[in-house]
Description:
The protein has 271 residues and is an alpha+beta fold. Helices cover 30% and strands 22% of the residues. The chain has three domains: 2-20 and 243-270, no CATH class; 23-31 and 43-47 and 153-236, Outer membrane lipoprotein wza fold like (Roll), CATH 3.10.560.10; 57-151, wza like fold. It has helices spanning 2-18, 84-98, 123-137, 177-183, 238-242, 248-270; strands at 57-63, 100-101, 107-110, 114-117, 146-151, 154-160, 166-170, 191-202, 205-211, 231-236. The chain is elongated and about 100 Å long.
Amino acid sequence: MVKRLFFIVYMFFVVLQSCVPHKHTMYFQGERNPDENSQIALTQNQRKPYRVQISDILSVRVKALDQETVDIFNPLPLNNQNNNQSNQAATGERAYYDGFTVDLHGNIEVPILGTMNVLGYTTEGIEALIKDRLLEDQFKTTANLFVTVKLGGLRYVASGEIGSPGTKTLFQEQATIFEAVANAGEIPVTGDMRDVMLIRQYPEGQQIHHLDLTDVNIMNSPYYFIQPNDMIYVKPLKVKTLGTGTTAMQALQSIVTLISLATTTIVLLKL
Length: 271
């Protein structure tokens, strides 16, 4: 009788240990002032301008009064497509083939202007650099040049315990870690939201940063906004490795199955 009671208590604790706590599956947790009517006071995240790194793809557009004189700088426009998803895929493909890729030395090859070093520049700085070179070598100020430089999308890699792992691209100026995760299919219950690894590229090499997505203070983190060529890795929770289930019901079903199997085996051995 004592052994049976001990076994039941042991199974009960196994079920509890096999469940994923509710607080481990929620974003933006933290203490709040009850007088703030559920509004979380956060200091404004001061995002520094992004500086171009190796392997970035730049999209350059040049406009002038006589547009034909600057057509060499501008890729042909995309054909009209009804499917928005295929249009985005085509845009990403065109950015890869028609954009300017920053090489290992931080240079890009621009038609007519030749080699230009852009490593460490902001997009605004590259715009000014190209415009000055064009006015110096090819055009006069009366040409009314207008130069725009943008990143060829925010390209990043999502891997590990995430809905849709792989290389992703967001065609927007900036994106938060939550937007990147949502674009990759969200983190399932079996993923560890409390220790998401962000591998970021720097001029001196790569660095790993650990982010707790369940903490509301993530909004004040310098890594709240992703950058091109970031890698996001989500580790699986231990319950995923054990395979006992993520809820109490799933864990209980696994244990009942094991007990039934063990009982059947014992009965067959006694026959």
